[in-house]
Fold:
Amino acid sequence: LEGKDAECRDMFMLSFYLIGINMIDLAGLTPSSIVDGRIVYRRAKTGKLYSIRIEPEAGKLIYEYSGSHHLLRCFDRYPAHADFAALVSRSLRRLGFDITPYWARYSWATYAAELDIPKDTISEALGHQHGSKITGVYIKFSQDKIDAANRRVINYLLGV
Structure:
């Protein structure tokens, strides 16, 4: 596989490796979004601050597709994330997958559930509310749990 289809497949996988990051958020990343081996950004939809450890699989793709203005060169070429997301969808269909880029997020959550990762950890990883709102004010969720969950999900996907 080469060219745009390979790039589109790889951006789908990068989204998966980064816990199902949305295309709008992936498009908004710049080289300065990498802080201490983590992708740090605010989710466009909610404004919630995310910090996702860059696993080796993600790091390889970030390096391979590095951009100048954006973290990834595809977004230097397609500044409107929706245009690139549509290209990814068409490419995935051409490759025989009737899915959209958003499926990376669904798949990550599904695999995490299959691995019996606690629902609160999955919710926190996806940026969803976990537990009681009031209790959540008093509890700082451990980023280490999310990092470990992401590694387990990636290993599961890769059959490791």
Q: What stands out?
A: The longest strand covers residues 38-42. Confidence is low (pLDDT under 50) at residues 134-139. The beta strands are 34-35, 38-42, 49-53. Residues 5 and 94 are 8 Å apart (CA to CA).
